[in-house]
Amino acid sequence: MGRMPEDRLEPGESLAYGRITDLGVEVGACVGSEERRPWASVSKLVASLGVHIAIEDGSWLRQSTLGDFALAVEELLSHCSGLATGALGEKRLAEPEHVEPSLARRSRRVYSNIGYELLGRGLESISSMRYRDYILEAVLAPAGMTGVRFARDLEVTGAAFGLEGTLDDLVGLVRALSFPSIVSSESLTALRAPFLPGIAGILPGFGYQDPNPWGLGAEVRGRKSPHWMGDLVSEASFGHFGQSGSFLWIDPIQQCFAVFLGSRPFGPWAKERWPVINDEVVRALAS
What we know:
The mean pLDDT is 96. The protein has helices at 43-56, 73-77, 91-94, 113-127, 131-140, 167-178, 185-192, 268-286, and strands at 14-21, 24-31, 37-38, 65-66, 71-72, 149-150, 163-165, 201-203, 207-209, 219-220, 238-242, 246-251, 256-261. By secondary structure, the chain is of the alpha+beta class. Helices cover 30% and strands 18% of the residues.
């Protein structure tokens, strides 16, 4: 018998994985710390659910535009608006509505924190609430993600990278992305179905990918290589990883998932170990 995925964990790392059935999310293993850790860009999955709620209640259309340069909601969700990435601490993140795209829209997949901060500002405008209050009321509380908090020192909305939570909270996010409790089945499909699937671009940490499919919120595995989800998940698998050393993926074909929290930032260690861990998750669930 081969090694189990949890055998590869190092101090400070946590992993949960399991199956998704008609009855719900079944956790097969949950190993590691129960403390709250930063999610970094995994926060974008929560932001995406908030945006899809706004689309469902009629506040926005997918084609509604935001900011000085009239960028569409669907373009911002799928990182094809042409906006630059925007690093933590940049002034542009605090004033996303005024940032001019650096590339033609819909021409290339440019991963953009600025774009998600623009969505966060937009949600504040249509709801007349702070982004964090909107997300707590619309997404986190209904999903039972009771351990999730916003980082205290944020000078931005937090839509791009502001959340902290436990491994159990990430499992709660898996439920919210798998079953139509927070948003409809149609919205869940849009969130994970490739939008403009032929667009190429840089997958942060893994280089140029052609194509680089992304849904209206989640990254889609596709045929990218190399890739943090590993080689054994289906091409339809979707999710997100964060610079804090966190990830979440769901394979709707093989009906399985994995979530991970780490104590050190994303780096070469993650590029090397995450694909191995994720391949072993698939093998363990198939045995």
